[in-house]
Structures are given as structure tokens and as C-alpha cells.
Amino acid sequence: MSDRKWLPPHDPEEGWDTPTEEDVADLLGEDGLVAGVSLGGPLPGDEDDDGDDHLPPRPIPEVGSPEWQADTAELAAVEEELTTRWPESKLEPSLDRIAELMSVLGDPQHAYPVVHVAGTNGKTSVTRMIDALLRALHQRTGRNSSPHLQSVTERIALDGEPITARTFVDTYRELQPYLEMVDQRSEEAGGPRMSYFEVLTGMAFAAFADAPVDVAVVETGMGGTWDATNVVRPTVAVVTPVGLDHTDYLGDNLAQIAGEKAGIIQPAPTDDLLPRDPVAVIGRQEPEAMEVLLRQAVEVGAVVARLGSEFDVVDRKLAVGGQQLTLRGLGGEYTDVFLPLFGEHQAENAATALAAVEAFFGAGPDRMLDPELIRAGFAAVDNPGRLERLSSSPTVIVDAAHNGHGGRALAQSITSEFDFKRLVAVVAMLDGKDADAFLAALEPVVEEVVVTRTASARAMELAELARIAEERFTAQRVHVVETLPDAVSAALDLVGVPDPTADDDVSGVGVLVTGSVVTAGAARSLFGKDAQ
């Protein structure tokens, strides 16, 4: 990472004055020029070069190599340092620390336009879809998402790929003196050190500016108003469905929670060279949440686009490996869109992502984006841990749903997209989640449930989860197993296929692993899936 102060993106419509050789000579003096070489020409000895002066990216070390082992060890050391900070499961209503860090770094979060995504359910899916579409439309992207499934490096992605362990470590070490300075000032004022989430957010913004990216897609962690990501000035703010979650911090009803999420809908910056109206793209909402979001949009002067009104899913059909969609966007109708994800909720997420990207590019009536590029972008979407098939013999599916709203969407998708005769669920949840609402949603589609716990320090006590499960399923349908690997093995035994690699006829039976992002990540690791 360089030590420069980052500048906001230059508007190509304005153009730069082209300096002459005499201009540069006046600025640098004769000693500052290479004698006999015209500006823009090759240096002596490089006449046959292809003209690409960019340094090649550092090669990713081979897994198991000494360099890989050293990078992995350093990443583990950084993660250990990060765990000493205030966990991301806590929220303080203040942006002071992250704002101060951004200020001393030169406000890197203002060096590129931002699409900001908040919501209770579907925000990671929408974030990944927006990222894929922008890349298909020839944008270099930065993506900041949370929480991670398997590796902390997933939270910061460039061009759709998680940064390497080495880049993560280097970024952290370069920011470390500034982190310590902000920590000290906060503690002297009686406040806490920067939190785990604040540090990772600052790292992402710095990495994006240093890349540099053309656009960043930034997902909130919790809430919106007081989320550390809310120091950006979004070109487009996206709010996915709002539901009851994190009620101890965000409020105990939809209106209060929507009020927190609405905080990312901001007025247009007053110092932009070419001011434009901010845009709020709003997914499907309950009426009480929609009212709050619309009120915020009106208050800040944002243009509003709503699922079911300004954009929508026109048609969807099941297809091999996903679904075929017709989407009505802000600029027109996009047909024959293949989405390699399952579920009606993912179709609605796709419509929301499309509207956000159209809004970013200024599309509107009769101003469609290139349909072929939109199709290519959606076809390239990957969304690990969301109705993801880990095995086909038998079918083992993992999903990160963890609340009542997510559980209902999951159950609906299981019913409409799959034809299970016997489905056993493996459920591990985190403390503080509404396990009763989640299990109530799954009960009609699951024959038996194996409750367990992950290695997370936040894991719900197994006895408590088992009690809630027995109340919903009856004791005869509930099995209690101490660890996730053993729980998956038990579920495979229950569906009659102890070896998931066997060639037996296993049609119509399956295992669903769900209950939290941590559970989904652990299941992916168990089945040998790489971090994405």
C-alpha cells in the first residue's frame, strides 16, 4: 500500500490538460527527464517492450510450500491479534473511531464510487450478484462482505476473488500504527479500542483505494446508521428484506430495525463536482419496514426503486443447476437470464441486484444495459453457503439461514426446488438467535433433526437447542450429537447412506446443514470446499 493521500475519482467527461514536454521540463528541470526520450516513449533498451508498465501481480504461493506456510502462519498471528478487540457481535452507536482512522489515512473510502448494501436477509447474496454484474460490465471491483464462512480473507475481495493471506497481512501491518493511534486517543477519552469489525472495514477501504478499484460493493455488518461501513457516501443504497434479528441492538420490532437499516440512505454529497441524486433500491419489505425506508428516502431526496413496482421478477422456471429468469429492470426487460442459485428469494435478490447496477450506471426507461453482459454476469454468480450442494450422493445441502425469515425462505425453496422423500437436517446455531422461529419454519419440510454445536465461542448451548427442537419436533424426531462432523455422519446414517461417496441409489433422500454462517462454513470445510 502506498503512503499517498487518495483522491476522489476523476470525471472523464472533464478531461485533463495535456502537458507538453516543455511544461514537464519546467516542473522537473533538465535532470528530471531522460535525455533523448520523448514523453510516453520507451526507456532506452525497452523499445521492443509491449508497453505494459504494470508490475505483474505477486504469484500466489503453492499450497504447502514454505512461502504458503509462512503466509498462513502470519495470517493466523494477525487473526489472533484481531480477536483481542471488541467482537463484531457488539455494536456501539458511534462512527467516531472509524471516521478518525479514515481521516488519518486520507479518506480512502471516498476514492471510488460505492454501492452500499444493508438488510436482514439476502444482503450477502445481493452483494455478490452486484459484484458479478459490475465485473461483467468491465468494472474493477472491490467487495467487502461479512461475516466470512471459512477464511477472514473472504471479507475483502478484488475482482471477485478474496485477497491473499499475504495481502491481508501486509494491509494490516501497514495500518497498524494508525490503528494504535486511534486506539490510544479513544481510550484516553474513556472509549474502547477499535473493534474487530472497524479494523477489517478500514482495511477493506484502504485495499480498494490502493488497488485501485473502479467501484466498491460494501455490505453492512449489523444495522446501518451506526455500522462502521457507513462512512462511505454511496452512489446507490440497497436495502434487502428487513426482518427480526439482532434485536438486542437494533430494536425489537420491524420499524425500529428498518430505521437502523435506513441510515445508509444518505443525501447527495455537497462537494461532488457533478452532483447526482442518490438512489435507494429497496427489496421486498413488510409494510411497516417499507414505510420507514420510504420516509428516509424522501427526507434525504433519494430516488426510490422498489421490488414489485419499479423492478420485478417477471417469470422464473427451474433449470438444471439453478433457474431461468425474466427480469424487469429499470431500463427494460431482460430475458433468458440463467441464475445458478435456487429459490424464489434468490430470483428477487437478482432483480434487486440488477436494479442497483442499472441505477449505478444511470439506466432508466429505454436505456437498458447490454443484455448479453447482464446474462454473463448472472451466470458467473457464486454464492457459497446459500442453498449450496456439497454432495450429490446423497444430496447434502448447506445454507447459512439463521433466523425465522431466513428459515421460511429456506423451507419454501426446499419444497419448490427439490423433491426429497426424506430430508434430515443438521442444525447448529449461535447464542441469541431465535432458534424457535427458525426450527418452526423447518419442521414441515424436515423429517428428523440432528442438533449439534460448532466450535464457535458464540455457539448456542447444545442442551438449550435440543430443548427447543424437541418442543417443535417431539423427542422422537430429535437427535443430539456433540460435534458437527459427528452430526453430519449421524444424519447420513439416518437417511440410510453412511458413505456420501458410495454409488448406491440414493435418490429422494438428503441432508440439510444449516443454522448459522459459522455452521455453513464449517460444513464447507468438512466437505473439502475452498474459501470463496
Q: Could you please describe the fold and organization of this structure?
A:
The protein is α/β, with parallel strands linked by helices. The chain folds into two domains: 66-379, 3-Layer(aba) Sandwich (UDP-N-acetylmuramoyl-L-alanine:D-glutamate ligase); 388-526, Mur ligase, C-terminal domain (Protein-Tyrosine Phosphatase, Chain A, Alpha-Beta Complex). The strands form three sheets. It has an eight-stranded mixed β-sheet with strand order 4-3-2-5-1-6-7-8, with helices on both faces. A six-stranded mixed β-sheet has the order 12-13-17-14-15-16, with helices on both faces. Strands 9-10-11 form a three-stranded antiparallel β-sheet. It is built from 16 helices and 17 strands. The chain has helices at residues 21-28, 66-82, 96-104, 123-136, 165-188, 196-210, 247-250, 254-261, 287-300, 344-361, 371-379, 404-417, 435-442, 462-473, 484-494, 517-526; strands spanning 114-118, 141-144, 156-158, 161-162, 215-219, 236-239, 279-282, 303-306, 312-319, 322-328, 333-339, 388-392, 395-399, 422-427, 448-453, 478-483, 509-514. The chain is globular. 37% of the residues lie in helices and 16% in strands. The protein starts with 20 loop residues before the first helix and ends in a 6-residue tail after the last helix.
Provide a quick synopsis of the model.
This protein is α/β, with parallel strands linked by helices.
Distance between the termini: 23 Å
Number of strands: 17
Largest sheet: 8 strands, mixed
C-alpha Rg (nearest Å): 25 Å
CATH homologous superfamily of the largest domain, by name?
Mur-like, catalytic domain
Helix content: 25-40%
Task: Count structural domains.
Answer: 2
Structural class: alpha/beta
CATH class of the largest domain: Alpha Beta
Number of helices: 16
Using the alpha-carbon principal axes, give the shape: globular
Strand coverage percent: 15-25%
Widest sheet: strand ordering: 4-3-2-5-1-6-7-8
pLDDT averaged over residues: 85
**CATH fold-level assignment of the largest domain:** UDP-N-acetylmuramoyl-L-alanine:D-glutamate ligase
CATH architecture of the largest domain: 3-Layer(aba) Sandwich
Uncertain segments are 1-20, 23-55
